[in-house]
Amino acid sequence: MPASPATTATALSAAAARLVAAGIPPDDARLDARVLLAHVLGLPSPAGLGLRLDDALSEAAAEGFAALIERRIQREPVGRILGRRGFWTLDLALGPDTLEPRPDTETVVAALLERLTPTDAPWHLLDLGTGTGCILLALLAALPAARGLGVDRSPGAVETARANAATHGLAERATLRVADWRGGATALGVSPASLDAVVSNPPYIPSATLPTLAPEVRAHDPVLALDGGADGLDAYRTLVPLARHLLRPGGWLALEVGAGQAEDVSGLMNAAGFSPPAIARDLGGHGRCVIAAQPPKKGGPS
């Protein structure tokens, strides 16, 4: 007798076991298998699999699922396999020139939204190293009267960010262009003291650490978005004084930081003359965002 076709439940179990054998943690393996099978079956979310556990998979679905699992076994991230990643309230396209957004980066969005009140004010924002546009577009989606500029050194990243802005109806309020923040305000086309917030998730991995990163990061995220120089702080040494020049009194600088970097980046902000920084923690309890205000002008109101 021919073998019975796999059911949703048996296919998920077998796929998760293969992923665990490839070195992927069990909880991640089970979730990855569910996300990939839901994609193959055209379901809007993995939750829909719960009603289909006893359903037999078609031959085409089984083959398609097996192909995606094989890519994951090779340590290609699920987001890269699907070509998209959820971030904040948005579903964002990824490209080869963009860092894949992580939940940790949502800490930056949350910290800034706590401070940009009222939400219907016409805030002016700048996102340095915008990548997919994730931070800027999440902020614009939550701040209906805000406008923002996102810049990146990579033309491919800017193209992806523009596509994401268009998908979410934010293109009219998001200007996205190729520029290098190392060229200062002139290169960015931004006037001094004109911004309400500057945000960035800059490269912050120490150069010597890059070869030790997980293969999902090392082989799939662009080095340009990862390499932070010898101590991981090169970008911050440029970003902090640049933001000090571009922010209005009372404006906010919000920067994502890597493990153990929050105090060093806070020190750079203090040295540049910002108001005392605060450190926002991610869901794992790690200091993930350092945020500080531009002080009021001396002798005048904020």
TrEMBL record:
S-adenosyl-L-methionine binds at G129, T130, G131, T132, G133, D152, W181, N201. It is an enzyme of class 2 (transferase). One of its GO terms (biological process) is methylation. Substrate binds at N201, P202, P203, Y204. Keywords: Methyltransferase, S-adenosyl-L-methionine, Transferase. Residues 124-208 form the Methyltransferase domain. Signal peptide: none annotated. Its EC number is 2.1.1.297. Pfam families: Methyltransf_31, PrmC_N. It comes from the Bacteria. It catalyses: L-glutaminyl-[peptide chain release factor] + S-adenosyl-L-methionine = N(5)-methyl-L-glutaminyl-[peptide chain release factor] + S-adenosyl-L-homocysteine + H(+). Residues 11-83 form the Release factor glutamine methyltransferase N-terminal domain. InterPro entries: DNA_methylase_N6_adenine_CS, HemK-like, Methyltranfer_dom, N5-glutamine_MTase, PrmC_N, RF_methyltr_PrmC, SAM-dependent_MTases_sf. Belongs to the protein N5-glutamine methyltransferase family. PrmC subfamily. Methylates the class 1 translation termination release factors RF1/PrfA and RF2/PrfB on the glutamine residue of the universally conserved GGQ motif. This is Release factor glutamine methyltransferase. The gene is prmC.
